Amino acid sequence: MGNSHSSSKSFRRKLTKKKSLQKLINSESLKQQPIYDPSKFHLPKNDKDIDRMHEQHFLFKHIWGGNFSSPIERTLHKGAMVLDVGCGPGTWLLEMSTTYPQSQFYGIDIEQIFPKEIKPGNLEFIQSDITNGIKFDNDHFDFVRMSLLAAFLQEDKWIHVLGELIRVLKPGGYIEIIEHELQYSIGSCFSMLITPLLNFIRSTGANVQIMQKIDSLLTTTTTSSNHHVSPSSRTAFSTSHPTNMLTNNSSHQVNLSLSNTLSRLTNTHSDTRTVIIGSVHGGQTGKVFEEILTSYFENTVVELLPWYMEISQEKYLELWKSCQKEFKNRASSTKLFKFWGMKIPQ
Ligand SMILES: C[S@@+](CC[C@H](N)C(=O)[O-])C[C@H]1O[C@@H](n2cnc3c(N)ncnc32)[C@H](O)[C@@H]1O
To answer: Residue 346 burial (CB < 10 Å; 0-12/13-18/19+)?
Structure first.
């Protein structure tokens, strides 16, 4: 225990000596000379990424207690049109299309990592960039979902994509969005990885905390009688993230556009779940979550993050190992956020 704490401390001292973290975080030169195409920096690139997404699907299903929260079960049994945007390897779709054979399922992803041939007959995949619009007619789907895309979409494109999701949704149909916020209650060691990661993502124009914004707008744009938030999760939400959204004009514009888009929904709900990282404090769920994070840090961003932090890959991996020790010594948690709502019937 003492060892891990002191090794993380000494690592931090070395890192601080090399270059202050704040300096790393604010490094403007990275914006001017990107080695990485920001929109592609953590797109799934290999089998390990695909395995991680499969594992994540089953963990999230366990955490949320099912594959969806919207009241659509009966429609799915009767025969619904369903769209999953940014579907990745299609794990959710493969399960759903097998469970509801009367319904027709579509998945869209910019990368062709979904199965091309071996899949149920009621499931189709389309390779497409959703920031260019969704190539379906208005009012086409009974259920539209999007899971874990905030880090990939610039904030203004996010608003456009949300508008598209609602456009292709039938009046009376449901939309469901899931996001993951890494920076909830974490120790100093994990912060040393998460802070530069979030700053890099922010430098691409994406906002991983967009769901905070959506949640606060849902409570103001929809009347309190048709927006429901679980009381326990609301407490966790407001204590961890004081909302400070309307700080400048562009932020005001974003809020206005988001409000307009969200005003097309009713019967909205939001729900947050806290996930403790590691088996010591988080049991089996925490163990699986740590495995997913390990794959993310040791595979997905193993080149990007040391480059951004200006440290060697060796030091970076050493830091990740110290984070894993920290998960044992301190209960570190992250947060999942979900909202769902119905398109206002005409
Ligand atoms: C973190 S993964 C989430 C996958 C899946 N939705 C899940 O919850 O496991 C994000 C997915 O979004 C896809 N993606 C990113 N930008 C996209 C875009 N502009 N258009 C379509 N898909 C995109 C990526 O290829 C990746 O498969």
So the answer is: exposed
Q: Give the distance (Å) from ligand 1 centre to CA of residue 323.
A: 27
Ligand 1 mean position to 151 CA, how many Å?
Answer: 9
Give CATH superfamily name and number for 2-343.
Answer: Vaccinia Virus protein VP39 (3.40.50.150)
- Provide the residue-wise pLDDT of the chain in tens; the chain has 346 residues: 334 444 444 434 433 333 433 343 344 444 444 455 555 666 767 888 889 999 999 999 999 999 999 999 999 999 999 999 999 999 999 999 999 999 999 999 998 888 888 899 999 999 999 999 999 999 999 999 999 998 888 888 888 999 999 999 999 999 999 998 776 788 999 999 999 999 998 888 888 888 877 777 776 665 545 666 654 443 223 222 323 333 456 677 777 888 888 889 999 998 999 999 999 999 999 999 999 999 999 999 998 899 999 999 999 999 999 999 999 998 899 889 999 999 999 7
- Look at strands 123-127 and 141-147 and give their pairing: unpaired
Hey, how many other C-beta atoms are within 10 angstroms of the C-beta on 51? 15
Mutate to test the pocket of ligand 1, among 64, 149, 164, 165 (most ligand atoms within 8 A of CB): 149
List strand residue ranges (DSSP E) for 101-168, in order: 104-109, 123-127, 141-147
Q: Is 148 in the pocket of ligand 1 (CB under 6 A)?
A: yes
pTM of the model: 0.83
Ligand 1 pocket check for 53: Cβ under 6 Å: yes
Q: Return the DSSP state at 345.
A: P
Candidate from 47, 110, 338 with most ligand 1 atoms within 8 A of CB, to mutate: 110
Q: Is 317 in the pocket of ligand 1 (CB under 6 A)?
A: no
Map out the domains of the chain as residue ranges.
2-343
Instruction: Tell me how far the alpha carbon of residue 202 lies from the centroid of ligand 1, in angstroms.
Output: 17
